[in-house]
Design a protein that fits this description.
This protein is mainly alpha-helical and about 190 residues long. It has one domain: LemA-like domain (de novo design (two linked rop proteins), Up-down Bundle). Helix content is about 80%, strand content about 0%. It has seven helices and no strands. Helix 1 packs antiparallel against helix 5. The protein is rod-shaped.
């Protein structure tokens, strides 16, 4: 009788241990999915601000067609993204296109002085900061998830559950390059 109780207690402890690991994996999976949805919300918000920005800039720099086309392509890529990788790639395209768009403003002092442009630029800057924070949170959540499913004891439960490693959001190689600064001598 005593050995039966001991076996039942050990079996109950094992079941509770497995349930705890299972719940931890699901919790961490939900956390990184939530983190991605926060990024997605900010990307959509940025995408919604872009048409207003483009219209403001077009009034001053109508001949900058290539820049406007790049922003349009990036916006279409954002709308058509079907997974995290495509969305991250489209977001990087948009960041580059907006950088070129804001560079145009340097050539047009009257555009830089335009109150609507300033407000849009501030709003986009705020959204970019939120996106950066959300990406950091996402990568932290993915790190926790990957660690749990790749280490003992989680690895023994993750594989049968069909759980696999997720990738981090990374800065594209072209954005990692250090800008070249040249202080040439003036004649």
């Amino acid at each position: 009788m005593t050995s039966t109780i001991v076996v039942l207690v050990l079996l109950a402890a094992l079941v509770l241990f497995v349930v705890n690991i299972y719940n931890r994996i699901i919790t961490l999976e939900n956390r990184y999915q939530n983190a991605w949805s926060q990024i997605d919300v900010q990307l959509k918000r940025r995408n919604d601000l872009v048409p207003n920005l483009i219209e403001t800039v077009k009034g001053y720099a109508a001949h900058e067609k290539e820049v406007f086309d790049n922003v349009g392509r990036a916006r279409a890529a954002m709308a058509g993204a079907k997974n995290v990788d495509q969305s991250a790639e489209a977001a990087n395209m948009m960041t580059a296109a907006l950088g070129r768009l804001f560079a145009i403003s340097e050539a047009y002092p009257e555009l830089k002085a335009n109150e609507n442009f300033k407000l849009l630029q501030e709003e986009l800057s705020s959204v970019e900061n939120k996106i950066a924070y959300a990406r950091q949170f996402y990568n932290d959540a993915v790190l926790q998830y990957n660690t749990v499913i790749e280490t003992v004891p989680g690895v023994f439960l993750a594989n049968p559950m069909g759980k696999s490693r997720h990738v981090y959001l990374e800065v594209p190689e072209e954005d990692k390059a250090v800008p070249q600064v040249s202080f040439g001598a003036t004649a």
